[in-house]
Design a protein that fits this description.
Elements (H helix, E strand, L loop, with lengths): L1 E2 L8 H12 L8 E2 L6 H10 L3 E3 L8 H8 L4 E4 L4 H4 L8 E2 L2 H13 L1 H18 L2 H16 L2
Parallel strand pairs: 1-2, 3-4, 4-5
Helix pairs in contact: 3-6
Length: 151
């Protein structure tokens, strides 16, 4: 598991303690964070090398982790919360989950079907490119200015 502490998340310390406590019970579970020297570059490497990313939020703002992973063509299984569904449209919306069991089912499916995972990764990158990068924002601004000038 990998994550960073957000300065605006008051629950992060309690969550980190709970996750770390559970990780001690399993020799195959590792917890990495900015507290253990894992920064942006390491997170980037993990996202690029992963077969999939799980962002099982029950509450969320935009959910930047989702956009980051999708941009890297890494498929995402995510909680159906906050701004995450805005990023996971089309076939990706089938990988929005509301339960632990649903999340586990989707993980197994994608790991057993790498061609589907690759297709979802490509679709995700295109969704991010079309909707959440600066060129799209600039086009929207120019369209607005043009519509105001033409009146």
């Amino acid at each position: 598991m990998i994550g960073s502490f957000a300065s605006d998340d008051p629950e992060s310390w309690d969550m980190h303690a709970a996750i770390s406590s559970e990780a001690l019970k399993d020799d195959d579970m590792f917890v990495f964070s900015n507290l253990t020297g894992v920064g942006n570059m390491e997170v980037n490497a993990f996202q690029r090398a992963s077969d999939l990313v799980v962002q099982k939020s029950i509450r969320e703002g935009f959910g930047l982790v989702v956009a980051e992973a999708l941009w890297k063509e890494t498929p995402v299984i995510a909680g159906n919360a906050g701004g995450i569904p805005l990023q996971m449209t089309g076939e990706l919306s089938n990988y929005l989950v509301d339960s632990v069991e649903g999340c586990a089912e989707k993980i197994v499916y994608l790991l057993e079907n790498p061609e589907t995972a690759a297709r979802l990764g490509k679709e995700g990158r295109e969704i991010i490119r079309e909707n959440f990068l600066m060129p799209r924002l600039v086009r929207d601004e120019l369209r607005l200015i043009k519509s105001l000038v033409e009146k």
